[in-house]
Structure formats: C-alpha cells, structure tokens
C-alpha cells in the first residue's frame, strides 16, 4: 500500500509505541486462572495537543485541504470532542483559521464538562467555537457556516465529525501496516485486535488495511454510541468507500466488520462502572491514561471479554489506544465519586 500517492502533511509522532501490558495481563489472568497476553498500540502518543487517533486522519485531511487551497477548516463534534481538539491544533500548526461546531450530546451542564478538558484546548489552539443543541443537524450547520464564509471570500474545507470519511480513514489503513510490522519485529503473532468504534473512520480504515495485508487477524470494535447492527453497517459502508479511494477492489468483506455494543451504557459520553474500572486499572497497573468516552469503554469491553474466557491462554491480544485522556478532566465528578 503506497500512501505517498495521497496529499498529506506530516506532523504525527510515528510510529507510535507497541508495548506489552504485563501487569494488566497478570491481574486478569490471576482472576480467571489464565488468560491472554495483552498488548497496547499507543496512538495516544501521536503528539498534537496531547495526541490521539484523529491526528493520523488529519495528516491526510489537512493534506487534502491544502491541495484544494483552503484557508479555513470547519468541523464538528460533541462538546468534549477529541477530534475537534486535534483539528484545532492541526489548523494552528498550519496557520489555517478553524471553526469548531460543538454539539451537546449528553445534557451535562457542569463547568468541568462545558469548559474544561478538550474545550479549553480548542480555545488555546485558537479555534472559534460555535455551540449547538442536541437537535441540530450538524452537517447542515457546517455547510451553512461554509456558505457564509465563502460569501466573505474565504476558502473553507469541511471535515466530517471524527474525520470519518474515505480520506481520513487512510490514516488507519496505514496503522494496519505499521502494527503488523511492529508485531513481526517482536515475533508477536497477533490473535485479535480491539479498538473503540464511534464515527466509524478508525475501524473502517483499519479493517481495510488489515484485509489488504491479508493479515488474517480479526478486529473487534467496541461501540461507544449505538447498537451493533447500525454500527457495523456504518463501518462497512465507509470501509467500502475507503477501499475504492485506495484503488482496491474486493478486499473488504462484510465479515471483517464486527462490533460489540454491550458497553455503551446509558448512551454516548455517559459513564459506566466498567469504564471507570478500566480507567482506574490501566492507570494504577500500567501508568496509562484512558478516556471516559472511547478508550475507557473499549477497554471495559476487552476486560470483560477476557473475564468471559473468550481467548485461548497465552494468545496475544492488541488494544489500540485512541487517546483522549484529557477528557478525564471533564468528568471530575465521575472519578471523584468513585474514589
């Protein structure tokens, strides 16, 4: 796969570390009388205002924006959007104006949630923030803003929520190649990969990349926002578009896309006991910070699957850490009340 064919700006710290989770593996194995070896792909270490998975997508999205002569970036996300924060940082680095449309998707009104965490970093990176209620159609709102800016002589480039389109998904198709190369170098035969899946771009790009490599490694997406069938349909649809954008044909199959929606809890961004436990375990056993919305719930799913005995003893399971730990500061009450 020759990714240099696509417009790109290089600002991520790559390759990200691929490390064993020895203490977590031992902890879970002691509970269950055995279990898999757990590994982590540290995409929380990509740089760019505390890093995260969107930085990889933004290399291709910003490359495309510059190729089209854009001078302004528009994107959207939930109030504590990791994607919005990384987009604001990328725009700042490239000297582009940035408009972030933040939508209330949780109903949380605490100052920690509405002003702290990702939101303060959006502002520090110079983004102009526009707030919208839960009923807003964010794609319509972005296009309306783009129309206004065009009338002012600006050249806006609109990025979908999560950077999740065929251009952004290239970043995670490349991760497949990076991860398999690191595993080969360490003589690690990967049996399963786990990651959070929300706006679909991360899982879609990754499964296309893994299929193109003929890796034979199954990927489990832990959904953070919706039921399994809809999540899988969204991921597969974007995977097909990504495959076409890469010039591939017949690589991605429906069976490559698997999601588990059993860890969403009350809804997107809403805390669960499993998420809180996962965040605490990774911090206390490995010194690694997860986030409350994505990686915390994904790790909760992986931990539960280990406890259910789904993996052969001594198999190797990789967790892709998509970043977002700054979001912990927006959930102060959640973690203090569980202290």
Query: In percent, how much strand structure appears in the residues?
Result: 5-15%
Low-confidence stretches: none
Main sheet strand line-up: 1-2-10-7-8-9
User: How many strand units?
Assistant: 10
Mean model confidence by pLDDT: 97
N-to-C CA distance: 47 Å
Helix content range: 40-55%
Output the helix-strand order. Answer: EHEHEHEHHEHEHEHEHEHHEH
So how many helices? 12
Rg computed from alpha carbons, rounded to a whole number of angstroms: 19 Å
Pairing-aware structural class of the strands and helices? alpha/beta
The rough form would be described as globular
Reported for the largest beta sheet, the result is: 6 strands, mixed
Please provide a written account of the structure.
α7 (170-185) packs across α8 (201-212). This protein has 339 residues and is of the alpha/beta class. It has helices at residues 22-32, 54-67, 82-94, 111-115, 118-124, 138-151, 170-185, 201-212, 228-245, 273-286, 295-307, 332-336, and strands at 18-20, 37-42, 72-78, 97-103, 128-132, 156-158, 192-197, 219-223, 259-260, 316-321. The radius of gyration is 19 Å and the shape is globular. Strands 1-2-10-7-8-9 form a six-stranded mixed β-sheet, with helices on both faces. The protein has a four-stranded parallel β-sheet with strand order 5-4-3-6, sandwiched between helices. It starts with 17 loop residues before the first strand and ends with a helix.
